């Protein structure tokens, strides 16, 4: 029996190391598509449209990466992953990149041996209440019943927040956003707490969104971003700079409308370097010289992705807030392209 | 003086039985108004139904919206259910991501499924012998149709979804687990020590582990044991796990049937000189399986409903499609409609199975 266990363990180890050691870019090129792990359904971030195609903020990142590697945003296949299976799927090599509203934390980065390539959305846990309650701050929530998703970091954050402020609450455990919405509407809880992006989506689905208010307090840091396996820095760099290119493009005013004009050459050397008219920057990542042009043509810059999926004009209606470019008072900042 | 006589020559007219002792009236009297407490209960129940049913019908049918472009449009039109979400996404609920141009293959496989099932489920069908041959080939036919081969372009199993996925997992699990379950049940009663121990260990292990755990093993752990580069199809992994899980339960159900057989049946078969397999095939199993039918069908129904658990490992069964649809802000908030729709599908399938088993029991009832 012990021999068998050893054998299995050795096999597992061999599998893990060889997966981690492989050159992902070559594998991806060989199979002809990027295998991207996404949510099974999260409003604004990953959902199926009428045609049956996946859309959303996280999905657009997958398309951008496919455009960077292949020049074709369609060269991507999706694997739907739940919170419980996402990291295993990435580590086992079932997917090449995970773009599934995943919070960057110390232990995920180091203990799980994953590489977060950046932050594409700074989220944080908030509260939504009915305006009729007259609550204006989370500090007024003494004794409230709170709908809370079990088994998530939000549950722990909630406990921390109430303990730190010496308040009591009554948890109403629920499983997902939809269940939370039903319970909240039926009045089984006074407050619903989850990430503010989720709250915005929940509020959008209510009969009268204006009767409900998201409280100003943010009680946790939830920097969401795409991630790859440890051990293949080249692939990690491609994933990182795809995200950076989206952010930089907004900074330099490059969008899907003008990118082809700007790619003819401009007076701005940074734009020229990004769009491949100066230097040999594509080759450094073993990508095409005009890979950024392909990315922007496929999905637009960061602002376009944001506005299309979760921005103020969508039913979700999130404002940029801290997710604005640092030029506009946000904290979105990418290193220079040089 | 003549004795006065009073003789009735005509027959008394046949009167109809009292109104209260026939037909609906009798049924009502016996079942609903037989005692004071029953009368009270009847009226209470009628009142409750009055409270529940008309508003539900208003919501589900009379005030419902069948065609709309979004939830907002639904809610502007009427107060009832917004079935438009199910109508617009119907194809996705049925096929998942199965490519549009290839959907005829799924349809054909579905129709042929009934052709293949007919001779197995119903023994008086004409040309049964020939059709059984087709039933045996059906798994290969279905594989080629659904996945590809013989000139049909390949469709990845990752694109299977919706009811198609449920039916594939359900039917494969059911048809593969029954023979396996029979073998396990026989093995558990075997005189051969090693076979018995292996069967007992397998059954007890699988029964001792929740299906979700097995699905997680299928989706995450198995990949570590595979040589790198081979991607062992997730659907196949799930099918194996579901089949093994169901087989362990079936084995116990069938063992119950085997144990209900009087020892005389075994002895009679032995005294006729029948070898083991013939004893089982001709004498024991036909009787044991017959008395196990309710339990077997129970297991099948449980398995069929358990297929919804695959959403946990990211396969898009009807509930998964529902979640992906409800995440679209166009339709967000219509979970009631989506879940009722999916529930109706499952009810039809499971109720059908249960009716068939009731019919089969009556059919096989040889009265002893």
Tell me what the structure shows.
The complex is a heterodimer of chains A (about 350) and B (about 375). Chain A is α/β, with parallel strands linked by helices. Chain A folds into 2 domains: about 20-120 and about 225-330, Periplasmic binding protein-like II (D-Maltodextrin-Binding Protein, domain 2, 3-Layer(aba) Sandwich); about 125-220, 3-Layer(aba) Sandwich (D-Maltodextrin-Binding Protein, domain 2), CATH 3.40.190. Chain A is built from 14 helices and 14 strands. Chain A has helices at about 1-20, 25-30, 55-70, 85-90, 105-110, 155-165, 175-185, 195-205, 235-250, 260, 270-275, 280-285, 290-300, 300-310; strands spanning about 35-40, 45-50, 55, 75-80, 95-100, 115, 120-125, 125-130, 145-150, 170-175, 190-195, 210-215, 220-225, 225-230. The longest helix of chain A is centred in the first third of the chain and has 20 residues, at about 1-20. The termini of chain A are far apart. The model of chain A is unreliable at about 10-20 (pLDDT under 50). Chain B is mainly α and about 375 residues long. Chain B has 2 domains: about 20-60, no CATH class; about 85-100 and about 155-365, MetI-like fold (Orthogonal Bundle), CATH 1.10.3720.10. Helices cover about 70% and strands about 0% of the residues of chain B. Chain B is built from 15 helices and no strands. Chain B has helices spanning about 25-30, 35-60, 70-75, 85-90, 90-95, 105-120, 130-145, 160-190, 195-205, 210-225, 235-260, 265-270, 275-305, 320-325, 335-365. The longest helix of chain B is centred in the last third of the chain and has 31 residues, at about 275-305. Chain B is extended. The interface between A and B is large, with 49 and 38 residues.
């Amino acid at each position: 029996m012990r021999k068998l266990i050893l054998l299995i363990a050795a096999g597992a180890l061999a599998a893990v190391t060889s997966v981690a050691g492989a050159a992902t870019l070559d594998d991806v090129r060989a199979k002809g598509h990027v295998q991207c792990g996404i949510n099974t359904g999260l409003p604004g971030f990953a959902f199926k449209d009428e045609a049956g195609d996946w859309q959303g903020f996280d999905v657009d990142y997958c398309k951008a990466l496919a455009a960077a590697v292949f020049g074709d945003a369609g060269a991507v296949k999706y694997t739907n992953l739940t919170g419980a299976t996402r990291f295993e799927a990435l580590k086992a090599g079932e997917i090449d990149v995970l773009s599934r509203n995943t919070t960057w934390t110390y232990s995920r980065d180091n203990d799980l041996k994953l590489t977060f390539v950046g932050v594409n959305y700074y989220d944080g846990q908030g509260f939504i209440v009915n305006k009729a309650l007259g609550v204006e701050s989370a500090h007024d929530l003494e004794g409230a019943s709170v709908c809370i998703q079990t088994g998530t970091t939000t549950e722990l954050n909630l406990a921390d927040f109430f303990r730190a402020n010496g308040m009591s609450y009554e948890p109403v455990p629920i499983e997902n956003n939809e269940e939370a919405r039903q319970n909240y509407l039926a009045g089984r809880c006074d407050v619903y707490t989850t990430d503010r992006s989720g709250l915005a989506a929940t509020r959008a689905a209510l009969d009268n969104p204006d009767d409900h208010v998201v409280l100003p307090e943010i009680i946790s840091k939830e920097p969401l971003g795409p991630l790859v396996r440890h051990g293949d820095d080249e692939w990690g760099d491609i994933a990182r700079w795809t995200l950076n290119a989206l952010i930089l493009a907004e900074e330099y005013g490059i969008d899907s409308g003008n990118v082809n004009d700007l790619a003819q050459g401009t007076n701005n050397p940074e734009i020229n370097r990004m769009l491949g008219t100066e230097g040999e920057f594509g080759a450094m990542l073993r990508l095409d010289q005009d890979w950024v042009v392909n990315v922007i043509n496929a999905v637009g810059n960061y602002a376009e992705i944001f506005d299309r999926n979760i921005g103020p004009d969508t039913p979700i209606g999130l404002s940029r807030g801290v997710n604005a470019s640092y030029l506009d008072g946000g904290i979105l900042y990418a290193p220079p392209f040089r | 003086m003549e004795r006065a006589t009073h003789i009735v020559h005509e027959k008394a007219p046949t009167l109809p039985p009292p109104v209260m002792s026939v037909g609906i009236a009798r049924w009502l009297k016996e079942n609903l108004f037989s005692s004071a407490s029953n009368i009270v209960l009847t009226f209470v129940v009628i009142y409750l139904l009055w409270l529940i049913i008309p508003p539900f019908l208003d919501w589900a049918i009379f005030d419902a919206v069948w065609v709309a472009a979004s939830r907002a449009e639904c809610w502007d039109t009427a107060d009832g259910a917004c079935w438009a979400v199910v109508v617009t996404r119907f194809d996705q609920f049925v096929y998942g991501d199965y490519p549009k141009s290839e959907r005829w293959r799924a349809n054909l496989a579905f129709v042929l499924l009934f052709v293949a099932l007919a001779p197995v489920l119903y023994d008086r069908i004409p040309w049964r012998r020939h059709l059984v041959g087709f039933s045996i080939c059906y798994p290969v036919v279905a594989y080629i149709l659904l996945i590809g081969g013989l000139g049909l372009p390949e469709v990845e199993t990752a694109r299977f979804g919706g009811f198609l996925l449920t039916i594939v997992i359900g039917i494969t699990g059911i048809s593969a687990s029954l023979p396996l379950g029979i073998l396990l049940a026989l093995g558990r009663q075997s005189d051969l020590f090693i076979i018995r121990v292996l069967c007992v260990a397998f059954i007890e292990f699988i029964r001792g582990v929740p299906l979700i755990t097995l699905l997680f093993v299928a989706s995450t752990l198995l990949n570590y044991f595979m040589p790198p580069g081979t991607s062992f199809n997730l659907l196949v992994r799930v099918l194996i796990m579901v089949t093994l899980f169901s087989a362990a339960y079936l084995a116990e159900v069938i063992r119950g049937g085997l144990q209900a057989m009087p020892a005389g049946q075994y002895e009679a078969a032995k005294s006729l000189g029948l070898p083991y397999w013939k004893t089982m095939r001709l004498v024991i199993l036909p009787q044991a399986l017959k008395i196990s039918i309710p339990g077997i069908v129970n297991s099948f129904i449980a398995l069929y409903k358990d297929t919804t658990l695959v959403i946990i490992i990211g396969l898009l069964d009807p509930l998964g499609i529902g979640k992906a649809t409800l995440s679209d802000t166009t339709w967000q908030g219509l979970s009631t409609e989506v879940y009722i729709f999916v529930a109706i599908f499952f009810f039809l399938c499971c109720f059908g199975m249960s009716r068939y088993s009731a019919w089969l029991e009556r059919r096989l009832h040889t009265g002893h």
